Amino acid sequence: MLLTRDKDFYRSFLRLMSALMLQQAVVLSVNLADNVMLGGYSETALSGVAAVNQIQFILQQLVFGISNGMVVLASQYWGQKKAEPVRRLMAVAFWAALAIAALLFALVSLFPHGAVGIFTNDEAIVRQGMDYLAIVRFSYLFFAVTTILLGGMRVVEKVNIALYVSIVALFLNCSINYTLINGRFGFPEMGVRGAAIGTLTARIVECLIVAFYVLCKDRRLRVRVRDLIRIDSVLAKDYLRVSLPVVATGFLWGCNTALQTVILGHMSSSAIAAHSISSTIFLFLKVTSVGASSAAAVLTGKTVGTGNLAKIREYTRTFQVLFLGIGILLGAALFFIRIPLLGLYSLEPQTRELANAFILIESTVLVVMSYQMCMNTGVICGGGDTRYVMVMDLIVIWGIVIPLSFASAFLWNASPVVVLLVLNADQYLKCIPAAVYGNSFRWIRLLTRPGGEEESSAG
Fold first, then answer.
1. Cα dist. 133→109, 117, 199, 430 in Å?
2. Separation CA 9–CA 188 (nearest Å)
3. What is the DSSP string of 18-69?
4. Is 231 helix (H, G, I), strand (E, B) or coil?
5. Fewer CB atoms inside 10 A, N or C side of the chain?
């Protein structure tokens, strides 16, 4: 049987995917709001913020990796109806995420010019990026706290709070952007600094709302401040073993995305502006695949925790059909909406032409990415094999794609369009291994300890 007839599976998957997709869409809308509003303000300002957003993207991938590592292990405990190990795993992830955010904050504070200058050699763009970074860097710690707390809610399938709080953050960010970027209602014109204030304010408010909900209102996990302070030494070791490959994968992916901006940014200012626009639109549609992947990871981990191997096989076959359908729909959507979306920006003809070509490439990338990413980071990683994705990325991205991309850009002097195609080649290359390994079911790993709570020891 190709598709499961389990109606509860479809209800759970669609509910989780929809909420996570919408939440990711709203989160990305905060960046999109900066992008669109600054695109109408100044192309230089747009490019400067785009460079800084690559730094933030690396942070996001690291923190998401820390959170996802927790979700993989904690979901199996939740499938066994054990809440205490979930709370203790949240504490480990909480401090790991804070440490990463604090480290990046220190680095960009000490070397702001170097941090932005990695992505472009245009000094005007660097100055705009530094103005934005000087304010937005304070959002890193708030983002880390919010992500881990929402990760805990994702484990227990309470995801609506993430959507609601993200809507509040988006509304707040857009309002402040509108007021401060161009200077309205008597406020000064602040340009990129106004956009940074909007983003920082939104991150602070969403962190406060999520912390209040998780610590005071949630009745499923019942997390308290004391739960986040103490570290369980036994579960910490299990967490590190499971999550380090996930964090490494997130970091590698973040660096890969940032390197795209580095390579294109050192080709021409038009290329970095075009890539900023196309990648933002691409990421906005990609959230559907991210939501599907996250939902698949939670449901697969929960099912592995129950030990029902027949259900795991049945669900995996169904997931693959759903992932392919999602990819085809997303690719078609990006193809057809590219023209009206490009009309929102005030661009030079060369930049507009490049952005259009980039979007055409990314519409095909969405199809293959939706399958391979959801299988790799959703089903396979969620099922307990967290090393597979890391090894695959090391081979395909860092062994093949990145070297060829640098050679295309700087040795062979290929056009930005060809370079972008090479940069995204990993999405195609990872599809066949994902299908072969995914259908072998050798990725199933039971990661929990017998007794869970009894064998843990708080330190």
1. 9, 12, 11, 35
2. 53
3. HHHHHHHHHHHHHHHHHHHHHHTT-HHHHHHHHHHHHHHHHHHHHHHHHHHH
4. coil
5. N
| CA distance linking residue 417 with residue 357, whole number of Å | 7
Closest CA to 359 of 332, 398, 328: 332
Q: What proportions of the chain, in percent to the nearest 5, are helix, strand and coil?
A: 80, 0, 20
Residue 78 CA, chain-centre distance (Å), reads 23
For residues 413 and 267, is the Cβ–Cβ distance under 8 A? no
Which has the closest alpha carbon to 231: 90, 101, 69? 90
Question: What average pLDDT values come out for the chain (459 residues) when binned by 10 residues?
Answer: 83 88 74 67 76 82 88 87 90 94 94 84 84 92 94 85 84 86 81 87 92 90 87 88 86 74 71 78 84 91 87 93 94 90 82 90 94 93 89 90 89 88 91 94 86 44
Distance CA 160, CA 441 (A): 32
The rounded distance, in Å, linking the Cα atoms of 320 and 137 is 39
Residues in CB range of 95: below 8 A, 6 or more apart: 231
Cα separation, 64 vs 68, in Å, equals 6
pTM: predicted TM-score of the whole model, two decimal places:
0.78
Question: What length does the chain have?
Answer: 459
Is 147 in contact with 20 (CB distance < 8 Å)? Answer: no
Distance, in Å, from the CA atom of 147 to the CA atom of 161, rounded to the nearest integer, reads 12
408 is written with which tokens? Answer: 């295309």
Residue 308, SS3?
Answer: coil
Q: Are 51 and 265 in contact (CB under 8 A)?
A: yes
368: Cα within 13 Å, side-chain hemisphere: 15
Could you tell me the CA-to-CA distances from 196 to 28, 33, 135, 156, 176 in Å, in that order?
15, 11, 6, 33, 9
- Please give the Cα distance from 54 to 106 (Å, whole number): 17
CA distance linking residue 150 with residue 67, whole number of Å: 9
Contacts 24+ apart (CB under 8 A), 213-219: 213/161, 213/165, 214/149, 214/152, 214/153, 214/161, 218/153, 218/158
The amino acid that residue 309 corresponds to is L
